[in-house]
Structures are given as structure tokens and as C-alpha cells.
Design brief:
Blueprint: H1 2-22, H2 28-56, E1 66-74, E2 77-88, E3 91-100, E4 103-113, E5 119-130, E6 133-142, E7 147-152, E8 155-160, H3 170-180, E9 186-192, E10 195-211, E11 214-224, E12 231-237, E13 243-250, E14 256-266, E15 269-270
Antiparallel strand pairs: 1-2, 1-14, 2-3, 3-4, 4-5, 5-6, 6-7, 7-8, 9-10, 10-11, 11-12, 12-13, 13-14, 14-15
Length: 273
């Protein structure tokens, strides 16, 4: 933003200088300096534009295959939790799963990377099965029409891509990519339960976590919400391309959910401290 402001100011000065030299109120050496500054401002503009285009692209490091196992609990009840991403001939399959003897929750997202380097979703599915009762939510994407079609038991909705296209899983890939790219603003329009929700995150700083893999240096961030007592904190490991190491969520009324990395692999190599 600062570079755009500087560009605007220098360009305005250059325009005034052109006018003044025509009226012979400014000397040639001064005009030459202003002209050079204008050339620099034009270079800065295209440099910033190129950087902005790169930020839109998903960093390839955020697309590496991974399989992660977590120690997890919900209100003191232990869960088995996993996260994975696989690339099958250019089609990415991303999954999360949490289960215990009472039931399981599974998410799956299928997507590609388009010619602009952005995520192009194909399908997202959320399946919950608790005590034999099954619920399902499905998002199917029609990229030619630029819409996502949401379907649940008694609900159908259509969301335009210009409003949102990321789902609960692909938004995690986008967040990871932005952390790798050191993007300043971490804000995402995400489709959840057929509605568009804005997810905002704030970086809190570095923190060391004790895990079964040893002491891990992490970057701690917080999901920021307005008018909500829910708190969500996430810890990512920079040296593992910002894989999620820990998640902690505190609900109103004392409910809480935690995940802590136990073991896993990245790009077919076991994670090491």
C-alpha cells in the first residue's frame, strides 16, 4: 500500500514538473531528477503488481503430499484424528477424519490447480455419523458457470464463485500457502453450511511446543471473531512448510477441542524434529 501511495505522489509531482517546465519555472537538472523518480515509481508499480499476482497463486510447498496423525480430544473424550493430502495425476484429494467408538466425522475435498495457479474445486463432502445417525453435506462445483451447489438433507443453495469458492478444507491450503508466502492479510471467504463466512486470522508470534516429535518451533495465530465467545488458536511449523502442529478451540460454556501432532510424513518423508 505504501508503494502505491509513493507512486501516486511522485507521479503527481512529475505532472506538475511538466507543467512548470513548459512555463519555464523549473530548471532542466531539477526536471531530470523528477523524471528519474517517476521512472522508479513506474518500476515499483509493476514490481508490486507482479508480487500481488504471485500471492494469488498457491505455493507448491503447500501442495506436497502429507499424512498427519494427531492426539485429539473433545471435552475430555479422546479421538483419533488424521489429516492428509494426495496428488493423483494433478487431482488433489484432501481429507480429515476424527473418530472414536461413538462415531466419526470425515471431510473430503477434491480439487485441481488452474492455469492461474489458484485452487479450482471439484467437490467437497462432509459426513457425520454419531450413534448410527448419519448426516451429509455436499458441495459440487461448476467451474464453467462459476457456481458452487450446496446440498444437505433439507437444504439446497447456490453460491457464486465471485462471492466465495473455498471450502472448509481448501481454505486450509490457502492459509498454509499464504503463511509460506508471508502474506500480511489472512482473510478468506469460505462456504460453510451453504453460507459464505469470512475467516480472519491474526499472527501472534513464535512459540515452542513440546510434542512426541520433540520441541517444535511454531508460529501461533488466532482466528479473530466479532461478537463471539469462541476462541480458536493454531500453531504451524515453519520448517515443515507451515503444517498444523496444534489446534485449540474453546467454546462458550467451557467446551473445548484440542489437537496435537503425534507423527506424520511430508512429501513421503517421516517428520523429524
Amino acid at each position: 500500500m505504501l508503494k502505491f501511495i509513493i507512486l501516486f505522489i511522485i507521479n503527481e509531482i512529475f505532472c506538475v514538473a511538466n507543467y512548470q517546465i513548459l512555463k519555464k519555472k523549473i530548471e532542466a537538472p531539477q526536471y531530470s531528477l523528477i523524471r528519474n523518480l517517476n521512472y522508479i515509481s513506474i518500476f515499483l508499480f509493476f514490481s508490486v503488481f507482479a508480487q500481488a499476482e504471485d500471492i494469488k497463486k498457491i505455493n507448491p510447498l503447500a501442495l506436497e503430499d502429507r499424512y498427519l496423525e494427531y492426539i485429539s480430544s473433545y471435552n475430555g473424550i479422546n479421538l483419533e484424528a488424521t489429516r492428509s493430502l494426495k496428488n493423483k495425476l494433478g487431482v488433489y484429494i484432501q481429507e480429515t477424519n476424527a473418530k472414536n467408538i461413538l462415531g466419526d466425522v470425515k471431510e473430503q475435498s477434491v480439487f485441481k490447480i488452474d492455469e492461474n495457479g489458484d485452487i479450482s474445486e471439484i467437490e467437497y463432502k462432509l459426513t457425520k455419523s454419531v450413534l448410527g445417525i448419519k448426516k451429509e453435506e455436499i458441495l459440487t462445483y461448476d467451474q464453467s458457470l462459476g457456481v458452487a451447489n450446496y446440498r444437505a438433507k433439507k437444504k439446497k443453495r447456490q453460491i457464486f464463485k465471485q462471492d466465495a469458492h473455498l471450502n472448509n478444507l481448501t481454505s486450509q491450503i490457502k492459509l498454509q500457502s499464504d503463511l509460506i508466502n508471508k502474506t500480511d492479510v489472512l482473510s478468506y471467504a469460505v462456504i460453510r453450511k451453504g453460507k459464505v463466512k469470512l475467516l480472519n486470522y491474526t499472527i501472534l508470534g513464535e512459540e515452542f511446543l513440546e510434542t512426541e516429535l520433540g520441541s517444535i518451533r511454531t508460529l501461533k495465530i488466532q482466528r479473530t471473531r466479532q461478537k463471539s465467545d469462541r476462541e480458536t488458536f493454531l500453531w504451524f511449523a515453519p520448517h515443515w512448510n507451515y503444517l498444523l502442529v496444534k489446534l485449540e478451540q474453546k467454546e462458550k460454556g467451557g467446551e473445548n477441542y484440542t489437537m496435537l501432532l503425534r507423527e506424520g510424513s511430508l512429501n513421503h518423508t517421516n517428520l523429524m524434529k
